[in-house]
Amino acid sequence: MRALAIIKQTRPILRNWPAEAAGRKNMLLLIQLRWIAAAGQLLTILIVHYGMGIRLPLPAMMIVPVAATGLNIGSLAVLRQRQTVASAELFLALLFDVVALTIQLYLSGGATNPFIYLFLLQVVLGAILLDTLSAWAIVFITSIFAGWLATAYWPLVLPDRFAGALFELHIIGAWICFALIAVLIVFFVTRISRNLQARDAGLADMRQRAAEEDHIVRMGLLASGAAHELGTPLSSLAVILNDWKRMPEFATQPGLIGEIEEMQVAVQRCKSILSGILLSSGEARGEAPTIISIRIFLDYIVKEWSVAHPGVSVDYDNIVDAEMEIVADPVLKQVIYNVLDNASEASPDWIGLSVDRSGDFLRLIVRDDGPGFAPEMLENLGKPYQSSKGKQGGGLGLFLVVNVMRKLGGDVTAENGIAGGAIVTLLFPLDTLGVRRKDSDGR
User: Were 173 and a residue from 114, 138, 222, 267 both cysteine, which residue would form a disulfide, CB within 3.0 to 4.6 Å?
Assistant: First the structure.
């Protein structure tokens, strides 16, 4: 139940994360567009003022690209500290660009300036980046500013050589504006669309993970319930077998005594498995945390697994530093057991297990000499009921392993060996395992 509560609490965060991450990417695109706009405005002002001889209010017009540069520098500094951007922040950033364009147009002829059509670029960006209400707000604001610029603006004074060519100049400016808008729309809208597609894919992945976690919770509840139910009959069997072993009728028959002892071992094994299930379904680390060397912990797991599977030869190689200690967790044991069980089912005579350290991860590599993974298995690794064994309900082992490793912040990869067989690699993050080194006095 606690696991289910945690999933419910984290779902809103997971649901919003891809959207906010896409918002950060879109803010970076707006910053890039603002760099282009500032450079383009500066270049256009210099060409018109000095090249064409059309006098412009340079000090006032230079304020806009300077302000845009300052805003970009500040925005980049903020984005280095944050990974998310809200929709309201995108709206304010786009509103700044609209106001900046309005000021430049006011100082350069208002509605008579052919670059007034750049307002359309702001409308397109708003329609893609913002929610419906904010997008319509951009439409309303740009319409008001465009109408205002038709009556209020700083008139341009043209040199005498352009006195009869005003229409031609306007046509050339309109063509340049059209080409500029077309290029910017294609360039930025395609990139924004990729960001939105990545957000949608992230949302779909989060929903899939939430569904898989729900599936795990249901299976965990069923397993713990079954463990409670099976505990009583197994205890009864243990008592009965112990009584049978002491009965005079069986004491004279060594064959029956041997079979009874085998049954006792099997019953004890079942009770140990159920105890592990019950322990793993609770707060394992909080209930009985045990500090143990990584090497000893893994050696014990391999030894215990080998005793339970006497027919399988385990080629075991552990080169992890014996001084490194972890918090022993039954969940880790169960993960390793599942991978070893799967390998032994595909390769009942031999499996290989090597353990080492890879950076900040503990790496376990399990090999077998079986038929290997089918291509569809590799493509759907970790999905429930994906199994090559043809058994009903099969495929849950790797499904549980992948999801537990995901919760631990680790990773699971699977591949087929060059010479045949399958290779499964587990990467456990050392900080999640609570790794520490022993003190010099052994504590």
Answer: 114
Residue ranges covered by each domain of the chain: 2-210, 220-280, 289-437
Least confident of 107-111, 192-196, 252-256: 192-196
Contact 142, 100 (CB under 8 A): no
Candidates 84, 93, 41; CA nearest to 65 is: 41
Measured CA to CA, the distance from residue 31 to residue 76 in angstroms comes to 8
What is the arrangement of strands in the sheet containing 290-293, beginning at the earlier edge strand?
290-293, 324-328, 436-437
Largest interatomic CA distance in the chain: 129
Backbone angles phi, psi at 337, to 5 degrees: -60, -45
Decide: 49 and 55 in contact? Cβ < 8 Å: yes
What backbone phi and psi angles, to 5 degrees, belong to 388?
Answer: -95, 5
Beta bridge partners of 217: none
CB 199 within 8 A of CB 22: yes
Identify the pLDDT of residue 12.
41
270-281 exposure pattern, b = at least 16 Cβ within 10 A, e = fewer: bbebbebbbbbb
What is the amino acid identity at position 217? V
**Considering the chain, what is the average pLDDT of its residues?**
78
pLDDT of 353 above 90: yes
Q: Against a cut of 0.85, is the pTM above it? A: no
Structure tokens at 88: 């309201």
CB 326 within 8 A of CB 361: no
Q: Are 257 and 250 in contact (CB under 8 A)?
A: yes
Phi, psi at residue 185, to the nearest 5°? Answer: -65, -50
For 367, phi then psi, to 5°, come to: -120, 155
- Whether residue 126 contacts residue 78, with contact meaning beta carbons closer than 8 Å, is answered with no
pLDDT tens profile 277-334: 655 554 333 344 578 888 888 898 899 888 888 888 999 998 888 778 887 777 778 7
Amino acid at 399: F
Report d(CA 42, CA 46) in Å as an integer.
6
Nearest partner of 118 among 105, 135, 136, 137, judged by Cα: 105
CA–CA dist 93, 30 (Å, integer):
8
Do residues 127 and 144 lie in contact, with contact meaning Cβ atoms separated by under 8 Å?
A: no
